[in-house]
Design a protein that fits this description.
By secondary structure, the chain is mainly alpha-helical. It has five helices and four strands. 26% of the residues are buried. The chain binds a DNA duplex (13 and 13 nucleotides) through helix 2, helix 3 and strand 2.
Length: 114
DNA sequence: ACGTTGACCTATA
DNA sequence: GTATAGGCCAACG
């Protein structure tokens, strides 16, 4: 059977964009969940890198809805401003305190479990 | 070509 | 519950 376990699919970036776009407004998810959904159980860093490219390229991807496992806005510095990410999340009704999502576990949204 | 960096995660103590 | 260490893979210098 086929199982050429490619380390990284060529459509990996596009895959991440599509999945992030499915995140509902007012909800957040983590890099690990996205990586697992795409099959990259270990390589959540690649997910972050993909989102970085999306921001640099100006893709319409709500990357501000993606945070790390702790619910911390680790990539706030890549949004062109340290307060941009927090402001975007606040605009969606999410409370941010010290670059950290409040009620993170409650707002957490699983891409494979809507 | 080699070494380092990076929007991370899981496991162990 | 927190703290530390290791792994993971791709892109950049």
């Amino acid at each position: 059977m086929k199982a050429p376990k490619s380390t990284l699919p060529p459509d990996f970036y596009q895959r991440v964009f599509e999945l992030v776009r499915t995140i509902p407004r007012g909800r957040v998810t983590t890099y690990g969940h996205i990586a697992r959904t795409l099959g990259l159980k270990s390589s959540a860093r690649l997910v972050g890198y993909a989102l970085t490219l999306s921001n640099q390229m100006g893709f319409d991807v709500p990357a501000h809805r993606v945070v790390n496992r702790q619910g911390l806005l680790t990539g706030k510095m890549h949004f062109g401003g340290p307060e941009v990410m927090a402001d975007l999340l606040r605009a969606e009704g999410i409370e941010i305190e010290n670059d950290q999502v409040q009620d993170f576990k409650r707002l957490l949204w699983d891409p494979a479990s809507p």
